[in-house]
Amino acid sequence: MTRPAAVIVLAAGQGTRMKSALPKVVHPVAGLSMIGHALRAADALEPEHLVAVVRHERDTVVAEALRVVPRTFVADQDDVPGTGRAVLCALEALSAKVGPVGGTVVVTSGDVPMLSAGTLRALVETHEGAAHAVTVLTSITSDPTGYGRIVRDQDGQVIAIVEQKDATEAQRAITEVNAGVYAFDGEFLARTLAGVGTDNAQGEVYLTDVLAAAAPAGRTAGAVVLEDAWEAQGCNDRVQLAQLGAEFNRRICEKHMRAGVTIEDPSSTWIDVDVTIGADTVIRPATYLRGSTEIGARCEIGPGTTLDDVRVGDGAHLPAVWGAGAVVAGDTMGTPFSVLGESDRD
Fold first, then answer.
1. Most buried residue among 214, 235, 269, 270 by CB atoms closer than 10 A?
2. In b/e form, how buried is each residue of 298-320, taking b as 16+ CB within 10 angstroms?
């Protein structure tokens, strides 16, 4: 796999169904904002340019993007709606800065926090290996309602992506759906997007129209089908946010247990993505480990303990303790119901 010319993360949406003053992509999942997860996965590809496209609550989104990945280049979407327009704004902003972008351009979304760097690599490898004009990430679902459908010809080749509102009854029965993540030939993308209009049910510039233009131009389009549908799971409301958080936490707990940590009750234990835990530590029920907390080896944490950005030395016991920003020496025996760190001055 070559180094992508650019990875573009779309983060301009308003997220009205979240019913929040906070922009959707800034809401946290497992202790990191959704856009933070997206940018980390994208940055792992080591692209020449990492771009975040913003609009609604711009300053808040930009501040979070730069906090997580300081090298992020910010592009602003204008008043023209649609994912295609968002990508074109990114390409135009990049072109003004560094010149036209060739090579592979990856487009992903700021609200799919479980999408992994490994999946993005597989997408790029498939795309470049077949020299496609476009390669799309897809998933198979029993309920495709609301998703763009992947249309294939009689030979199984991808020929179009049809949005729900534009689909026929036959197309709505298709269960392979668009995950909203793509790899493009950068020159083909820029040239095609410049001619895409808004003649569709939503009056938007669809990025998916670029795929439909491949065959008429004598190019091919491909697809990578996800084995893990959670990686394509977006977030539009608080219900989906909770579902994503629960699944992310289940996987985090499983990772630690397989690395030698005992978690007595994973269903009541919440561990953020950046927490580290040493081997042979026991995490008892109703424990919350947040932020960049570091737990040493052979510790006993909980039950009923909450630690936020706390460093704990080897062999410490912290039952029913609340801590923030504290450093706990090894072999410390914490007093139940005590407060450590930032608030223990009160």
1. 235
2. ebbbbbbbbbbbbbbbebbbbbb
Buried b (16+ CB within 10 A) or exposed e, 264-283: eebeebbbbbebebbeebeb
Q: What would the two tokens of residue 28 be? A: 């946290």
CB 261 within 8 A of CB 279: yes
Return the structure tokens found at 85.
């327009």
- Tens digits of per-residue pLDDT, 234-269? 999 999 999 999 999 999 999 999 999 999 999 999
Query: Letter for the amino acid at 135?
Result: T
CA distances from 30 to 15, 37, 189, 239 (A): 19, 10, 34, 15
Instruction: Say which of 3, 17, 172, 191 is annotated catalytic.
Output: 17
Predicted pLDDT of residue 343 = 52
With the C-alpha atoms ordered 36, 42, 47, 51, is the resulting torsion angle positive or negative?
negative
What phi, psi does 144 have (nearest 5°)? Answer: -85, 5
Q: What angle do CA 90, 107, 122 make, to 5 degrees?
A: 150
Tally of domains within the chain: 2
265 and 227 part of one domain = no
328: three-class secondary structure by DSSP: strand
Buried b (16+ CB within 10 A) or exposed e, 195-205: ebeeebeeebb
Is residue 197's pLDDT more than 90? no
CATH of the domain at 322: 2.160.10.10
Residue with tokens 């009160």: 346
Query: 237 in a domain, yes or no?
Result: no
Whether the CB-CB separation of 32 and 273 falls below 8 Å is answered with yes
Q: How far apart are CA 75 and CA 86, in angstroms?
A: 9
Q: Find how far residue 6's CA is from the centre of its chain.
A: 16
Global confidence as pTM = 0.94
Domain shared by 210 and 278, yes or no: no
Residues 35 and 102 in one domain: yes
17 classed as catalytic: yes
Is residue 75 included in any domain, yes or no?
yes
> How many other C-beta atoms lie within 10 A of the C-beta of residue 80?
14
